[in-house]
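Hello Y.,

Per our agreement to keep a running log of every chain we model this quarter, I'm adding this entry. I've kept the format consistent with earlier entries: sequence first, then predicted structure.
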Amino acid sequence: MGTIRVHRPVPPRAEVESGGELAERRDLPDDAVLTIIDNGKPRGRDLIERIADGLRRRLSIGQVEVHTKPSAGAPIDADVARMLAARSHLVISGLGD
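Predicted structure for the entry above:
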């Protein structure tokens, strides 16, 4: 199974909570691919698309792709996770209600 890395959007000079480290920061290419994961929750895609629009205004996003899960309760299998990781520079997935 793949590794999930959690990135915290904290400015580099911010203090790190005890026992934690900031994720590595790399520059995005000019044509960065942002993938949003539509989990099927009501209005979830609308929210994630708004977040994607905000990121497009702030970052060099060249393309936004949408991956739609069959249902909110269905996990993404390992092959799909690897494929998304290989072609995406950023991935946004919504959780909860």
